[in-house]
Amino acid sequence: MIVTLILVAIAGLIGLGINVPLVGALIRFRANYTPRSLHLDQEGQPEPHAGPVISNYFAMLFRIKRIEGWSGLWKGYMPSALSSIIIITFVGIIGASMSFRPGGAHTVEIESSFRLVLYASFLALLTTPFTVIINRAITTPHKLPWFAPLRSLQILLTPYELHRPWALYLGPGLLLARSLHVFWLVFVQRGMRRLLLPDFKTVYDGGDQRNMFTGLSPIGVGFYIAFVGISAVLVLTPLEVIATRLSVQRNNSQSGGFGPAAQDEDQPDLEFAGRDEDVIALRPEDQPYSSFIECGKTILEEEGPETLLRAWWVTMAATLIGAFS
């Protein structure tokens, strides 16, 4: 039993080692702030007011390696490992099975309606703080110590958030974006699967494997695949982009005597990860998104609709894979 647990743990760590660089590039690509508006420089000449323009997901992956080196690709590994352990424990308690990736897809197979409601209600609550910490760990321009979690939290969170952890849930629109994402996958997509496809347990009765797919309708399968693919692009991808933007937006409330965050102060032990430049630009903290709707509208107005569809193919591929699991 102990040997099995050790092997599972090792396999999980190896899997994260592969997954974290890919997810990190995705998060940075979607978080990168690139407004299209123009402003005048000191000489009165118009110049684009934009962050680094990265055209695609793979360009972001290579940019991270060029600026921050190999260590930059594995930013967010430690909080991802911790969150995976806690989420797997939670899933085991409620008797569900799912796959989770930051900002990504969830697949679920739960027997009773009560457990389904329980799963949908608590999944967003459980994952929101981890999403915030993981996404900030990935997008911060600073180096984070691997084995000093308290120091890392001091860099990633404001003093207000450190003293009031529930403030991570109160970020404008973040919990709504996360909840809508889970609701769509757990209820809407799962409902369409039940409507268009038979239960695979009834399709295959354990007899002749040649009769395994006789109960499937090609039209139903086609409609289901089309629905999953289109909704992944038009619904889930914008939700993930908005959730990413809202998760990296820090709560800088200084009420109650809370001062600025560690990364907002000049500290000699605060080291930048990049070489002469940052990998991405984040929206200025003095211009925060005020709500879920306002975030989406502002992205459309400042950066264009293509920003809400960044790396749509990643979401579509992951959702299609999970749609039949």
From TrEMBL:
Protein name: Mitochondrial carrier
Keywords attached to this entry: Membrane, Mitochondrion, Repeat, Transmembrane, Transmembrane helix, Transport
Spans traversing the lipid bilayer: 6-27, 76-96, 116-134, 166-187, 221-243
Keyword Mitochondrion in record: yes
PANTHER family xrefs: MITOCHONDRIAL BASIC AMINO ACIDS TRANSPORTER-RELATED, SLC (SOLUTE CARRIER) HOMOLOG
Originating species: Serendipita vermifera MAFF 305830
GO molecular function: transmembrane transporter activity
Domain of life: Eukaryota
Compartment(s): Mitochondrion membrane
